[in-house]
Amino acid sequence: MKPLIFLLCSLFFSCSGIDLIDDYVPPTLRITSTLEEVPVGSSFEISASYFNNVGDFIQGASIQWTSLNPEIISVESDGNASTKKEGTAELVAQTVTEEGTQIEARIRITVISNVILDPDTETTVPETEDTENTNTTTTTPTLDITNRISEIFEQTSYQIEVDYQDENGNSTPELNWTSSDDSILEIDENGVLTAIASGVATVTVSVLVSNTTLIAENAIQVIALVMETVTSFSGNLETKSGYTLQGSFTLSKTDEGLELSLGEDYKASSTLPGLYVYLSNNTNTTAQAYEISAVSVFNGAYTYLLPASIELMDYQYLLYWCKPFNVKVGEAKIYD
Amino acid sequence: MKKYSYIIIGLLIFNSIQSQWINEKGKGYYKIGGWSLLADEHYTDQGIVDPNATRGLFISSFYGQYGLSKKINLIAYIPFLVKNYQFAQVSKTNGKVYEPRQEYNGFGDINLGVEYGLKTEGKWVFSTTLTLGVPTGKVQAGSDGSYQTGDGELNQLVQLNVGSGFGIGKQNFYLKSYFGMNNRTQGFSDEIHSYVETGTQLLKSKLLLLSRFHWIKPLYNGTLDASSSNGNIFANNVESVILGGEMALNIGEKWGISATITHPLFGRVIFKTQTFSGGIFFAL
Questions:
Q1: Angle CA A110–A113–A118, to nearest 5
Q2: What is the pLDDT confidence band of residue A80, given thresholds at 50, 70 and 90?
Q3: Which of B93, B239, B262 to mutate to test the interface with A (most CBs of A within 10 A)?
Q4: Are A189 and A236 contained in the same domain?
Q5: Helix, strand, or coil here: A175?
Q6: pLDDT tens digits, residue range A92-129?
Q7: Taking a contact as any Cβ pair under 8 Å apart, which residues of chain B between 149 and 208 contact chain A?
Q8: What pTM, to 2 d.p., does this model score?
Q9: Nearest-CA neighbor of B274 among A9, A36, A252?
Q10: Which structural domain, as residue segments, surrounds residue A155?
Q11: Is position A3 within any domain?
Q12: Confidence band of B166 (pLDDT split at 50, 70, 90)
């Protein structure tokens, strides 16, 4: 039928037909958070994006989160999560497509310890404030921190435990907890410390025993919370046409935004008019794609700087496309 | 790019039928016609067939050849309307129009030529032709500049033509051929043109049937490519091998109609499609 249409169109001046673009892609729910490791006691927000059956990003799509391992990471339906203990947890995002199909995406996150234990133990420091001895005791009171730490991630908490025995062997003292700098470390009456900001502070626990104050101290460094995330993807360009396109690429985060770097082995045909490079979620059309630039370098290393508004996982493919004639030249998968 | 190449090829093939031998002084041959292609495939620079958005090109033109003297003919090809268009690009999935239909109408590149008869009598006739491609068309047109009607360069095609007649049984045939060199400017590669045509007359010489073969081969000595085109999106190093056929019917004593079809056998950076043309010619 099509040849006949072409013949008729050619004979009778011009056609006003349409090209149907086969642009269907499976609807996708994509987790855009790139977390790999988070410390115990921290909270974070995890996010996902929904792309419909032509690769369009659907803003405001209803996405529900659940945790398959809530004892390790608990998550609210909106994606606010908090870590409970060390281990690996799997979080699931779900949404319903326009066609009524439920789709999901999963991510595995490892929860690591939020502190570094201090192997050195300090001896109890008895301070005699009053030398009036009225008793003859057989046991020397002791106070010690049994789970000392040297470092803790900021914005996380830690329970400090002590070992105390008075002269009568009782172990339920009224302890006094203090921090040398509340802007760095806070500690409550139960010995739960919260790391506020980077720096060094000392936690002191003391108890008054028979006019003698026993003191135990733990100097702690609070370090900035850096969650392990993916910061770059690499891959290879592949021609999908009769035109040359090859070479490696890396898409990476920088302080200014994203950076697309083509390797020394990059090569593209220079015979095509209007060759452009895109970021896209659909390899069959550039309709929803982000147009990076017209291609002006066809051999060797080259770098495109992308605006900060584009996130690392906003697009799944690189496309090379002859824009005027709508010819797909090649593509590269940025990530699976 | 590809369209321009087809303009040239169309010109050469569409109008070659009448130019096998030099017109007598004061005699002329004139034709008004249309030439059309519609393509959703093209040959890449490696000769591989790839799809593209459906593009159409329709040219309304005047062709004239006039005998200035016994040995000199003047030739003019004037594409007074070149229509470039592209089909609307529509999502098959949801019907969304990605790009509406686009079209640009303009004046094309004029060709002016002179043919000189080197040997105008005898079994074999020889002539030479100089054709100038005058850049009267628009180099950039349409939303992205790709709906151009001309290539922006003054090219010079020099041909050596040869023609002869022969018979098979009682049927007479003619054979004509030329070899040409097209000197292109503005960074385009020069081209070699090779052409062979044979035909015969039927129905008491009222009907002419002919077939032709045309090969344009670039010399790859140009500098123009996508990185140095400075906005000119015409492709360089275009190659084509075209097979064609034509039927010309004399209706009146001095006029008739013709129809032509061509088919590409091979190409580089050119549409892969048939072309169709038709027109009314006058021999005055």
A1: 155
A2: very high
A3: B93
A4: no
A5: coil
A6: 999 999 889 999 999 999 999 999 988 765 544 444 44
A7: none
A8: 0.77
A9: A9
A10: 115-131+138-223
A11: no
A12: very high
